[in-house]
Amino acid sequence: MPSSLYHFEGRYACLADIAAVVREKSAEAGLQGDSINAVESAVDEACSNIIEHAYKGEDKGEIVLEVELISEGIKIRITDQGDAFKPEKIPSPDISAPLSRRKPSGLGLYMMRKCMDEVSFEFSPGCNTLTLVKYRDSGC
Amino acid sequence: MEVHITNYKRCDVLSIIGRVDSGTAPQFQDETQKLTQSGKYKLVFDLSKVEYLSSAGLRILIVTQKECKRYNRGEVLLAEVPPKIYSSLDLAGFTALFRFFPSVVDAVAAF
Questions:
Q1: Which partner from A59, A115, B4, B24 sits 20 to 30 angstroms from A44, CA to CA?
Q2: Residue B3: strand pairing partners
Q3: 3-class SS of residue A57
Q4: Closest partner residue to B21 among A15, A37, A99, by Cβ?
Q5: Tens-digit pLDDT profile for residues B26-42
Q6: What is the distance in angstroms between the Cα of B62 and the nearest Cα belonging to chain A?
């Protein structure tokens, strides 16, 4: 299956452009409403995390999206050259906790995992790759 | 993203328009903080024109709700929430933490 490559500056103003590309390609892959929203959300959270945590600020590096239309849906590889992190060290939020005990952080990675069918990280020196897969009509 | 604020006698309505993501969330936070810091804790968020709400926006909702509900001095009510945005709130487990209203008028009347 052919893949398309997109380069974006690592700045928050690019998030809307990234979302537009992701929505267009998801529709091209045959995904429907809720699934397209889910992919948009996962990619937005991933790219926001790259700017905030990997690059520790805007304009420190680029974000590369490789979008592949696969027979079951869509596969998106997101690459950056920022700092690596340990996903297993990020605690999942307790979404059933009452308001008083609800923590405002930790939702990004959680939402990414809930929205996609496959989420995998690969860290090598100078290059971090996140691979997201969404199957057609799998919901969010 | 734009935030329009309408002041009523009993509460304040914030109409949020556009995308609330990591880039625009600080502006949303500034507007809500200005209100709570001036002693306004009865707020209605009109979400009818929100196109996208990221975890950065969700954080502001939870922080503002905590601030408003402290000492039982107020509350954030959510009005006209589009299905796409409701799905994000549901996914994050927020639907139990807010009251939802079909219209801004209904939400204002609840105070």
A1: B4
A2: B16
A3: coil
A4: A15
A5: 999 999 999 999 999 99
A6: 6
The token duo for B20 is: 């609330």
Going by C-alpha positions, the residue among A3, A1, A29, A7 that lies closest to residue A79 is A7
Gap between the Cα atoms of B96 and A135, Å rounded: 29
pLDDT of residue A140: 56
Please report the pLDDT score of residue B7 as a whole number. Answer: 96
Task: Return all residues near B71 (Cβ < 8 A) that are at least 6 apart.
Answer: none
The CA distance from B32 to B76, in Å, is 10
- Strands A62-70, A73-80: pairing kind: antiparallel
Q: How far apart are CA B28 and CA A34, in angstroms?
A: 25
CA–CA separation, A88 vs A80, rounded Å?
A: 19
Q: Which two tokens stand for residue B56?
A: 């950065």
Name, in order, each residue with C-beta under 8 angstroms of A124's C-beta and a sequence gap of 6 or more.
none
Residue B77 token pair: 């009510």
Contact A119, A13 (CB under 8 A): no
The rounded distance, in Å, linking the Cα atoms of A33 and A26 is: 10
Residues 65-124 on A with a CB inside 8 Å of B are 93, 95-97, 99-100, 102, 104-105, 107-108, 110-111, 114-115
Asked if residues B93 and A95 have their Cβ atoms less than 8 Å apart, the reply is yes
Distance of CA A1 to the CA centre of its chain: 21
